Amino acid sequence: MDPYSLKKLNALRKERRAAILLTDLGDGRDRVIAEGDAVAGALGEAVAKAFRSGKSGTVEADGRSFFLNVHLPPPRLVMIGAVHISQVLAPMARLVGFDVHIVDPRTAFASPERFPEVRLDAEWPEDALARTPLDPYCALAALTHDPKIDDPAIRRALDAGCFYIGALGSRKTHAKRIERLTAAGVPQPALDLIRAPIGLPIGAASPAEIAVAILAEIIDALRSRGIEPRKGEAA
Q: Which domain of life is it from (predicted)?
């Protein structure tokens, strides 16, 4: 590997930015592509697909063979609310490879006994997320039903460009949430990114079923980044 490529790759990984080490199998030359860099043609399509899937491999493009070594930051799931849904969702998310972080200032809920082996901060989201900032490889699930807790976390997630932002509550509850966030100066295009009611519409009723619906929606959001929604689908 070219020393400059190694230096650039390490810098991007330290910043929790996705990168691909692209090696031309014909001449052995390599370069680093950061997610968001412009790459034209068939190679650009292969690079975009690799960023979504996270899978390394060989591709043929423009009459040449390339090896794409994909380096994605470990995805994080930040749950605002140490609630029953979180108790089920946390181990499920860890099982599929997410780093899990639960934030809830209510110490009666945010206890190590209820959430073993999970990072748990019994403090306000503004403080916890200032210490461990969100980024584009984070998913945020706001689950408390308490605007004082959920709303500041949602605003931070929007500012950070999280790949998924979901909020628990009915359509009526979400309409009131939108009113509050609009009054706080959040623009409409950002508000449209919030998934609410949270989770895929599978008729989930119990905390465990709701957790399944949420995790499925998060995985879909992670693997479809950069793809325009098909006609008839919500953005």
A: Bacteria
**CB 47 within 8 Å of CB 22:** yes
Q: What percentage of the chain's residues is helix, strand, coil (to nearest 5)?
A: 40, 20, 40
Instruction: List, in order, residues 6 or more apart from 204 with CB less than 8 Å away.
Output: 210, 212, 213
Q: Is the pLDDT of residue 233 over 90?
A: no
Distance between start and end Cα atoms, the chain = 40
80 neighbors 110 (Cβ within 8 angstroms): no
Residue (of 60, 79, 80) closest to 68 by Cα position? 60
Contacts within 8 Å (CB) and 24+ apart, 54-59: 58/25
Domains in the chain, CATH or no CATH each = 3-71 (no CATH), 76-223 (3.40.50.720)
> For the whole model, what pTM was predicted?
0.84
Tokens 């790759």 identify what position? 9
Mean pLDDT of 26-37: 92
